[in-house]
Amino acid sequence: MKKPTLAIGIPAHNEGKNIGSLLESILKQQQTFYVLESVIVVCDGCADNTVSVVKEFTQNHRYIKLLAFNKRLGKSVALNKIYALCKSDFLLTFDADVVLERSIEIELMIKEMLRDDKINLVGGRFILVKQKTLMGKLSYVSFVSFEDAFLKLNGGNNFFALVGAASLIRKRLYKSFTYPKATISDQNYLFAMALRIDQRGFRVAKDTRILMRPVSTFNDWRTLGARSVVADKENIAHFLGKGILQRYYMPRSLYFKSLLKWFFKTPFYTTGAIAMNIFIRAFPYRKAVHTDGTWDLTHSSKETIVSEQSQD
């Protein structure tokens, strides 16, 4: 049986601290079930050392390609460029601030895609790195308690489960659309496009271990919340209509059970996480999101990740 071909796309804006670690982890991946054809890095107006870090990899690995925009145009523009350049059977996009913990992560995502020809989109499962600050620990509990709920909701086939930092896309999906100008909710737009082809066309590769660093400062949490809690929904409704917001429904009983589980595990940090989430909803930080498809960056989530930092 012929192995499917794979391209990897990485949109990056000022990711010099971690993109080298991501590329190193990609180079270590096993290729039993696929053939890696290219790695395309699009630097979106980078003002740090991202370009120079990637260039070092292009010198030793010809299939790693670098494209650099002169100014920041937004993640959706970078993704559109990657989609246009890619010709492989599958496209796997990564945010530049993650790392693949083991050599089997991509294979696990490919295997999930190959289970059923109706599957057009597979999301990765994320493991947060260890946190030392109070706000970082609250952020960790906030994520894992919500993850417990969204992985159970509709078997994991829901908007929340596609985090967007690792998305495996079948060719018939990534060639079927482009992101509208000023899209900030790219993962939600991608999920909606997958639903148009097949309502059952999304899966989460639940056994993957893709390392991600949560925000660990008060200001970064507010900045992230401005986009993920408020602006994402407004943005997707603008392009696809308010009816799409029905897909954002999370049953209170399901989420409450998850919070209760984590409260018994760690009552202090769960209570703090709940308080922070109430605060960012009551006092949204709207200045963090712009009208051109860009947003203010968080800084505490951009530090270098090493595999030893994983937190179960």
UniProtKB/TrEMBL annotation:
Q: What is the lineage of its organism?
A: Bacteria, Candidatus Gottesmaniibacteriota
Q: Which UniProt keywords apply?
A: Glycosyltransferase, Transferase
The residues forming a coiled coil are none
Q: Can you give the residue ranges of the Glycosyltransferase 2-like domain? A: 8-174
- Sequence similarity: Belongs to the glycosyltransferase 2 family.
Species name:
Candidatus Gottesmanbacteria bacterium GW2011_GWB1_43_11
Q: What is this protein called?
A: Glycosyltransferase 2-like domain-containing protein
Q: Which GO terms describe its molecular function?
A: glycosyltransferase activity
Q: Which domain of life is it from?
A: Bacteria
Give any Pfam family that matches.
Glycos_transf_2
The answer to whether UniProt assigns keyword Cell wall biogenesis/degradation to this entry is no
Transmembrane: present as a keyword of the record?
no
